[in-house]
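Subject: sequence -> structure tokens, single chain

Hey, anyone have a minute? Need the predicted structure for the following. Not urgent.
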Amino acid sequence: MNHDIIIIGAGLGGLTAGAKLAKQGKKVLLIEQHDRPGGCATTFTRKDFTFEVGLHEMDGPGPRDLKVKIFRDLGLTDKVTLLDVPEFYRFVNQRYDVVVPHDPEEATARLTALFPDDEDGIKTYFYYLLNSRKILAEGNLDPGKSLGEFLHEHIRNEDLKLILLGNLGYFHDDPYSISLIYYMVAQGSYYGGKASFVKGGSQKLSNALAAVIEENGGTVKLNHLVTEIIFEGGRPAGVRYESVKTKEEFSAYAGEIVVNASVPALAEKLLPENHGKELSDKMVGLKPGASLLTVYFGFRKPLKEIGNRYYSTFIFDPTIKTQKDILPNNHSGFETRGFTLVDYSQIDSCLAPAGKGVGAVCCIDYASDWGDLDRDSYLEKKKQVAETIIARCEKLLPGFRNALEYAEVGTPLTVKRYTLNPEGAVYGFAQNPGKPMDYLSALPENVSIASAWGKFGGGFSGSIYSGYMTAMDILRKRAT
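Reply:
Had a minute. Here:
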């Protein structure tokens, strides 16, 4: 069967591209190996709890937020409800316990009151975040500069640096190897507007995008895995795919192919050897970013009933004394590794029945720390990690253990299994200073990337932007 567009993968990038293209009258076929659309933007249920896989908070909607236009264009504003997240985050490291608000003026005032000697540095930090477009347009910023270097230049107090880096795990695992430019844009989007959570979980957003595709005549085919991009006359012409359950093989053809999958997988598994090698050669020096470990919690009563007042709490072990300690800590044992506690009962999340609650602990992790374990050892390690995290949460919030009804651990291998991303990477390529983008030039003319592995980077917003702009590029190209 012939289509205008074939999309490989139903993460947010593929879904957004498919929704826009289908809405513009293109015949879309989207193929996804999982049993539900969304990639990391999914939920799952255990007992009477709904667990959010990926979303803690999504930046926006704000006055300059492209997602406002995208949601309106795709008709999503009537399909999903965005709930305001109350504060940006709480930071705790035994030396400081600070709540950082989303409002940049409030955040500046609060941090300046705590660190008056760093008033100028705090103002400089927020100036860069809130004026990233202007600064980048002026062209005076070294593209090779890291966030760690920037903070070292402008902030003197080490604990202040750590507070500002509280949510670094939203983007990367090390301040000295993340691009300042990337961080300015990404972090600035949280301070420039506000942040939100999709009521009912991010699966609601993914399902809404899939519905737009189908309502406009497109097809979303779940439980099917694309195994190869078909070339005819030296040009991509379609895909071969198979049923995950029966292994029955199929073929489909289209004039454009959108890849919502990892670029390494595209090079190694989907393209013919010569095209794959060309793309791989362009990726030399690039590496997948870090993965995440998540402990999902179901509570017999909301955590706010035992005294928790915050949506997101970032815990840094007191042994993290400078920003250079962050990366080693991300490789340390779970007794000391930094983590985030998210309490969804602080908003009307609809993830748990009345009188109960859902939460999660999330931290940077690596597939290499789990890959050599046999099944029994793997399960035992997950059990030990859960117990360690529960004990630390109990210390932070007495009564946590007694409120707990259910716990489950997802590792980087879990991420890898459901997304097929190498090393379970959740943010695509690591956003290192000076990260080259010329690998995209090695793509065949009618193959596009709409995922965290493209030019917009990871996270919900990056993936949505990637999908929408990919669709716009295809529409413009096909109109000429």
